[in-house]
Amino acid sequence: MKHRLLAIPLLLAGLNLSLSALADEFNADDLKRWQAGFMSTVKSGEKLFHGGINNPNTMSCDQCHPNAANTHPETYPKFQQQLGKVAVLGEMINWCIRNPLKGKPLALDSDDMAALQAYITWERRGVALAPGKH
Ligand code: HEC
């Protein structure tokens, strides 16, 4: 009995050790690198948004959404009539790629989709989240 009771704190100590090995550890250099990576993704998204998407017609996102500000990323997920369901931002981006641009939708986990979302969201940084809002 005594042995079993002793085993509990030992087990907890072991768990704690293995969890701390998984904790996020980073330094100022890591932060700099990650921020630079993020900004380079924003730049790629900006290019895609301003004519960089390979689509059959000559339409580009900025013709209807001049600087991405009227794309309201802060309101997602929300019900979108065009899709008939609660949609995430990427699904609405794909709606525009399929319809006005007549292009092929992007995989939701593709680098180009991440770049478009990074740019669109960066343009609206600081705006309060308002999921579901119309
Ligand atoms: C010909 C005009 C046109 C072009 C070009 C266009 N869109 Fe749209 N976009 C629309 C319309 C219309 C809507 C629907 C507005 C609504 O119902 O909220 C929309 C909605 C959106 C929304 C959601 C806006 C909201 O308020 O919920 C996003 C995000 C978006 N577009 C991104 C893009 C991206 C990215 C591209 C380029 C790949 C693009 N659009 C190209 C017309 C366009």
Characterise this structure.
With 134 residues, this protein is mainly α. It has a single domain, classed as Cytochrome c-like domain (Cytochrome Bc1 Complex, Chain D, domain 2). The chain has five helices and two strands. Strands 1-2 form a two-stranded antiparallel ribbon. Helix 2 packs across helix 5. It is globular. It starts with a helix and ends in an 11-residue tail after the last helix. 16% of the residues are buried. Bound molecules: heme C. The site of heme C has 18 residues, from helix 3 and helix 4. Heme C binds next to helix 3 and helix 4.
Task: Describe the secondary structure blueprint for this structure.
Elements: H1 2-22, H2 28-52, H3 61-64, E1 78-80, E2 85-87, H4 89-98, H5 111-123
Antiparallel strand pairs: 1-2
Helix pairs in contact: 2-5
The structure holds heme C.
Heme C binds next to α3 and α4.
Largest sheet: 2 strands, antiparallel
Strand content: under 5%
Q: Identify the CATH architecture.
A: Orthogonal Bundle
Q: Specify Rg, calculated over alpha carbons.
A: 22 Å
Count of distinct structural domains: 1
Residue ranges: pLDDT <50 for 5 or more in a row? none
Key terms for this structure?
Cytochrome Bc1 Complex, Chain D, domain 2, binds heme C, 54% helix
